[in-house]
Write a structure and sequence with these properties.
The chain has four helices and no strands. The chain is an all-alpha fold.
Length: about 70
């Protein structure tokens, strides 16, 4: 299932994928997902759609912003 909210996505990343949702993780993923020419980004968009790619970019930025409080 593709998550449609930040909280659902965050739970998926942390609980299902067992990934620590750190600022470093967010920065690394953003460097990939904001590069429209990156092969991984193209594959992600093809599999999950442009809207989900946009959502993930937004959520990764939220992770960065939360860490700066």
């Amino acid at each position: 299932m593709i998550p449609h909210t930040f909280e659902a996505w965050k739970s998926c990343i942390i609980n299902d994928c067992k990934i620590n949702l750190t600022q470093e993780f967010a920065k690394k993923r953003l460097s990939v997902y904001t590069d429209k020419n990156n092969t991984e980004t193209k594959k992600f968009a093809a599999l999950y759609g442009e809207q989900h790619l946009y959502n993930v970019i937004t959520w990764l930025n939220m992770v960065l912003n939360q860490g700066q409080r």
